[in-house]
Specification:
- It is a single chain.
- This protein starts with 5 loop residues before the first strand and ends with a helix.
- The chain folds into four domains: about 5-110, Phosphorylase Kinase, domain 1; about 115-235, Orthogonal Bundle (Transferase(Phosphotransferase), domain 1), CATH 1.10.510; about 240-285, no CATH class; about 300-395, no CATH class.
- With about 425 residues, it is of the alpha+beta class.
- The strands form four sheets. The chain has a five-stranded antiparallel β-sheet, covered by helices on one side.
- Helices cover about 45% and strands about 15% of the residues.
- Helix 2 runs parallel beside helix 12 and helix 3 packs parallel to helix 5 (about 215-235).
- The structure holds adenosine-5'-diphosphate (ADP) and magnesium ion.
Amino acid sequence: MPSALKITAAAPDPALLDLPWHIPLEDWPEKTLAALPRGISRHVVRFVRLSGRVLAVKEIGESVAYREYELLRDLGRLDVPSVEPVGVITGRTTPEGEELNSVLITQHLKFSLPYRALFSRYLAPDTATRLIDALAVLLVRLHLTGFYWGDVSLSNTLFRRDAGEFAAYLVDAETGELHDSLTRGQREYDLEIARVNIIGELMDLDAGDLLLDEVDTVAVGEMIVSRYHELWDELTRVEEFGTTERWRVSDRIRRLNELGYDVGELQMTTDIDGTTVAIQPKVVDAGHHHRRLMRLTGLDVEENQARRLLNDMDTYQAATDQLGENEEFVAHEWLAEVFEPTVRAIPRHLRGKLEPAEFFHELLEHRWFMAQNAGHDIPMPQAVDSYIDNVLRHRPDEEAILGLDTATLRAIEHD
Ligand SMILES: Nc1ncnc2c1ncn2[C@@H]1O[C@H](COP(=O)(O)OP(=O)(O)O)[C@@H](O)[C@H]1O
Ligand SMILES: [Mg+2]
């Protein structure tokens, strides 16, 4: 009996039908697979190349597959950093008529790295801290939208470079629930899961000798709790001041903007005799710099990268004597005169190493160091050449690290 394969997808790609759905995912032939670094998982997960993109395929039960698919769609609509769902396939059977589990298909997140790959190649002691910071930012963002994760962990998160920091993405929504808003108890519970999972994951790395001795696993685990609270309080805290101190309102908004948030609504109340004012931001949208850069240039990059590029744009505006000029105009010119030529200078075969915005960020750092050493400014073309020869060439490819396990990656790092 030919199986009644059912594909549910927002934009179904007919090429999906060519994949060997009648074979258990675990046994898929090597030639269909894309060898990319993968985190630890309960289910079988494989990457495949299809119609010029890479998909992640996860074999799970039918109802769970649909649930996770819907949740990921919701998260996408809410603009939360998470993997993008492609579809669900059910009704799989082997040629012998044996039923196979359903699959959830997501778009492979480009240039993303599972935390194990990061640890094995970047043993810098502060890597752990930066990963935790990124995860705290993601968790606050999820909680602000009413998403309870239920299984917060490093394994269920993907990391992308973000101008020297990391940006975290949710990859596993299986245990998630979307509510209108979360109670403090729900948030604290999620946070406790995060703490316990992170400590476990770090101990695991430690047991595999992948962690530097100076990393204190319990302290790093506790850090998620303190970073989360700091950020949550800054974003939602009620601030009280006298009616003569109204500048505090714009000050609060400015501070939130610096943190990368936009204030959608600010609740302001005065006490009965009108001597004090209390303000509390009601809706905070993350991605302040990301949105501004997107509006000005159409570039779609991470938050810190956007901040970095906007700074460079401001510098350009000052250096070219255009301080009074309107910013749309300057942005357009900066894009055409600075950003694009610089990114185009990367030889084609080196382009898989880093995303353009991350390349640009590293280049600016490199140029700054060169200028410091030389004691004078360095022209961009000279900085580009030096960066490509001395730094970029020696980096591993991050777009597609071909099937290397963590031990091999570590060996490369020590070469
Ligand atoms: N869309 C994706 N892009 C990149 N990596 C992915 C993607 N989907 C899954 N992965 C990788 O597969 C691993 C397991 O996926 P996950 O959804 O957590 O499975 P499980 O439910 O079995 O835990 C993740 O840690 C991640 O490394
Ligand atoms: Mg998982």
